[in-house]
Amino acid sequence: MRRIIIIAAAVQALAASAAGQDVMERAPGSIRPTDAALIDLPGTDADLWDQGPYNELNGLSNGVESAIGARRTLMFDFVIPPGQIWHIDGLRWRHVWETLEPGSGSGIEVRFRRMYQNRPSTPITDWQTSTTYEEYAVFQGRDAISIAGFEPVTLTPDTYWIEATIIGPENNFWRTADLANGTQVWVDYSDQGGFQRGENVFGVAYDITGILTGTAESAYTLTVSGDCPGRISVVWAGATPNRRHAVLIGTRRGAYRIPSGRCEGTVLGIESVILTHIFGTGPGFGERFATVGSHPCGWQMQLIESPSCNLTNVEIIP
User: Which residues are CB-neighbours of 265 under 8 A, at least 6 positions away?
Assistant: First the structure.
């Protein structure tokens, strides 16, 4: 109950006039505007994330609904960096049909999950069926490339998982690549106990060759630096000028949903939330300093803007 009261108070305070009293005790530090030229934004229909490269080895079972109720979906992780918002509208990947000809699939279902303790966690979108789907053979045998398009899904800076399954027969395998880029693969065996790491399937590690496509734009961002306990710097960019925003901290990453007020329903990227400060966004970028004790060291921080309820990325208090 106390946490709900705190969040509700934060929302009410943020809804106040931008001319209200600044409750941040320390004076603003030097301004660090974000140079737009330093933000490398993909253009229209660009590759937002490439798991590459393809090495023609190995595969992961990826069945769909069958007579015995089996459903197996495959997930790979990707990172949206600070300074960007992604509008994801497509997925390309390479795979092989085991007993049927390439082209046996009729579509793809996708949804996105959060990251928690280095593994896929709570779904943050519903299942979405592709609006377009192409599948064609490459080289020899049963190799295939699938290209799916769907209604754009907008995500802010963080680490996520995309979960996908082909709509069609069950005899399908995903082609994979080396783990040179350090990413992971998980499989959701709903008929065999849920999540399993990719290496649990055949006893070795795998990395899917998925490519996410879409567009990107500049984002409302947060950077935290310094030494905790001690003096830390809170830098923001991409905020709406002359508004107000709040500093929220929490013990861990999570998916806390604001229960009431102007920002009701907004899902934060942290849990066990505490409101610490409210202050103006200035020209949309700026920096504040604070001296902190040992208690919040290692906690997570996020900013929320009013009245838009926009959120920054989540940053750890160093």
Answer: 257, 258
CA-nearest of 115, 126, 134, 168 to 151 is 126
Question: 149 with 63, same domain?
Answer: yes
Distance CA 272, CA 267 (A): 13
How far CA 84 is from CA of 52, 63, 217, in Å, comes to: 21, 34, 5
- Token duo for residue 112: 């996105």
Question: Which of 209, 234, 263 is the last residue before a domain boundary?
Answer: 209
In a domain, 45, yes or no: no
Domain hosting residue 123, numbered range: 52-209
User: How would you class 269 by CB atoms within 10 Å of its CB: exposed for 0-12, middle for 13-18, buried for 19 or more?
Assistant: buried
In 3D space, the residue among 238, 181, 176 whose CA is nearest the CA of residue 49 turns out to be 181
Question: Within a 13 Å sphere around the CA of 252, how many CA atoms are in the beta-carbon half?
Answer: 6
Terminus-to-terminus CA distance in the chain, angstroms?
29
The alpha helices in 15-163, defined as continuous H runs, are none
Q: What is the pLDDT of residues 129-163, one digit of tens each?
A: 999 999 888 766 667 888 999 999 998 878 899 99
Say if 47 falls within a structural domain.
no
Nearest to 80 by CA among 33, 111, 32, 112: 112
State the burial class of residue 61 (Cβ atoms within 10 Å of its Cβ: 0-12, 13-18, 19+): middle
Q: Are 159 and 81 in contact (CB under 8 A)?
A: no
Residues 79 and 197 in one domain: yes
| Statement to judge: residues 90 and 182 lie in one domain | yes
Is 194 found in the same domain as 60? yes
Taking Cα atoms as reference points, which of 316, 308, 317 lies closest to residue 85?
Answer: 308
- Tens-digit pLDDT profile for residues 266-275: 889 898 899 9
Q: Do 10 and 31 share a domain, yes or no? A: yes
Percent of the chain with pLDDT over 70: 70
pLDDT digits (tens, 9 = 90+) for 277-308: 899 998 888 889 988 888 899 999 999 999 88
Q: Is 146 contained in some domain? A: yes
